[in-house]
Amino acid sequence: MKKLNVGLIGAGFMGKAHVVAYSNLPKFFWPAPAVPVLKTVCDIEESIASDAKDRFGFEKYTTDWKEIVNDPDIDIVSVCTPNDSHAEISIAALRAGKHVLCEKPISNSSADAKEMAEAAEEAKENGIIAMVAYQYRRVPALVQAKKFIDEGSIGEILNVRATYLQSWSADPSSPLSWRFQKKHAGAGALGDIATHVIDISQYLAGDISEVVSSVKTYIKERPVQEGGVDSLGTIKLDENAKKEKVDVDDEASFLVNFASGAVGSIEATRNAWGRNNFLTVEVHGTKGSILFNYERLNELEVCFSDDPDDRRGFKTIYTGPAHFYGEVTWNIPGMNIGYGELKTIESYEFIKAIVSGEQPSTSFAEAYKVDKVSDAVMKSSESRSWEKVE
Ligand code: SOE
């Protein structure tokens, strides 16, 4: 069985998700296209790096990502650092001949994203795979939705309504992390979570060609947690703590026009009390509708126009063995998959692509396109008018 050595850069929340995925891959997908081996983990905080080595079962740790990128034994680099270092690390890794799985958004600026897409294109010529971790498009229910769309079961797409609502930053006393600083994150809810639903909308309905938006920051400063890690709202600080400026958006809402002629809307915020990982997509077509909500990720709601009048309505399909990846996850519908299995499906697609040499989505070029939509959203919020996606 072929083995591929993994170097993980950034051992926080997303680093853990990549480890769960690589470790579970051969447990679900067997025979695996190749077996990932956890070789080296890197974090700039030595205590986190050394802890991650023991906890996740890596062979060694480092605090210098270049050691991973320059290590001839490493085949794969997982980039799970804050957005502002994605470009430098990914480009160096691709040029060193490593396959790269980079967390989303691809970068904190579309200029960097462009360079990354170019580096991925060059690397592709040498059989190197680069992928951005927009995992939600791989939820089996959404892959089923795409199947319905592609086979014409809901007709021509008229409208895509998507939201991504969370609550973890709604409390003003939850600390400032890199996610609230433009120089690190690039954008707030727009870059962090709207990008997921931009990716899904484009996956289902094709390219977005223009947008008109409204982007807001409600909480303009937050307390600073000295030496703190990104706590995603789980830590609250005293109101007397030193505060620093938030210079990214809390909320982005926009109307979109697709190149196909379909229309739609996207809303994202991390300040919606009561909403946790409320990623929804509703697609209306000339012959039916589809509704998905990540908080019920094992379900897809569908309505077909040719059902008789007296029984037409949304019905729930529970994804399981009859659906994508269902035969390898759990074999009874209703046993359900979660975030860990979803990241495992993503890592399977990545490793499979490395072995087959076929580029998987979301490619760096597609992720760069997502960034261009985000840029148009920011531009429109300033110009207060429709803006084309460049
Ligand atoms: C925080 O909003 C976050 O961790 C995002 O960064 C992820 O992309 C999303 O999947 C879950 O929430």
Automatic annotation (TrEMBL):
<dbReference type="InterPro" id="IPR050463">
    <property type="entry name" value="Gfo/Idh/MocA_oxidrdct_glycsds"/>
</dbReference>
<keyword id="KW-0560">Oxidoreductase</keyword>
<dbReference type="InterPro" id="IPR000683">
    <property type="entry name" value="Gfo/Idh/MocA-like_OxRdtase_N"/>
</dbReference>
<feature type="domain" description="GFO/IDH/MocA-like oxidoreductase">
    <location>
        <begin position="144"/>
        <end position="290"/>
    </location>
</feature>
<dbReference type="InterPro" id="IPR055170">
    <property type="entry name" value="GFO_IDH_MocA-like_dom"/>
</dbReference>
<feature type="domain" description="Gfo/Idh/MocA-like oxidoreductase N-terminal">
    <location>
        <begin position="4"/>
        <end position="124"/>
    </location>
</feature>
<dbReference type="GO" id="GO:0016491">
    <property type="term" value="F:oxidoreductase activity"/>
</dbReference>
<dbReference type="InterPro" id="IPR036291">
    <property type="entry name" value="NAD(P)-bd_dom_sf"/>
</dbReference>
<dbReference type="Pfam" id="PF22725">
    <property type="entry name" value="GFO_IDH_MocA_C3"/>
</dbReference>
<protein>
    <recommendedName>
        <fullName>Dehydrogenase</fullName>
    </recommendedName>
</protein>
<dbReference type="GO" id="GO:0000166">
    <property type="term" value="F:nucleotide binding"/>
</dbReference>
<dbReference type="Pfam" id="PF01408">
    <property type="entry name" value="GFO_IDH_MocA"/>
</dbReference>
